[in-house]
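Give me a protein, keeping tokens residue-aligned:
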Amino acid sequence: MSMYMNGSATLDLASMADGNAEDANIAVVGAALGDYVDASLAIDVTGLQVTAGVTAANVVTVTVTNNTGGTLDIASTTAYVRVTGRASLSS
């Protein structure tokens, strides 16, 4: 198995009040529970918290939390994830 697995998906998140969060699932073949995940969005993320994790085999869930202090309507964007297989880091 490759050390890295990549995935992406278009996100069209709902309007979010300050402190609210939205989740989106991205299919990543080979992703397994316990793997490491990095995520990014193709927009300015100032005031946003972006987290991601493997939530089931082959599924990465990206969570975007609004910490801007106001309501935010995020434009449609692309989310990118890179999964590092836990087993590939064993020495």
